[in-house]
Amino acid sequence: MGIIEKIKAIEEEMARTQKNKATEHHLGLLKGKLARYRQQLLVDEQASSGGAGGSGFEVAKSGDARAVLIGYPSVGKSSLLGKITSTKSEIAHYAFTTLTSVPGVMKYQGAEIQIVDLPGIIYGASQGKGRGRQVVATARTADLILMILDATKSKHQRESLEKELEAVGIRLNKEKPNIYFKKKETGGIKINFQSPPQNNLNENVIKLLLKDYKIHNAEVLVRDSNCTIDDFIDIINDQHRNYIKCLYVYNKIDAVSLEEVDRLAREPNTVVMSCEMDLGIEDVVEEIWYQLNLSRVYTKKRGIKPKFDDPLVVRNNSTIGDLCHSIHRDFKDKFKYAMVWGSSAKHSPQKCGLNHKIHDEDVLTLFTK
Ligand SMILES: Nc1nc2c(ncn2[C@@H]2O[C@H](COP(=O)(O)OP(=O)(O)OP(=O)(O)O)[C@@H](O)[C@H]2O)c(=O)[nH]1
Question: Can you give the residue ranges of the TGS domain (predicted)?
Answer without folding.
Answer: 293-368
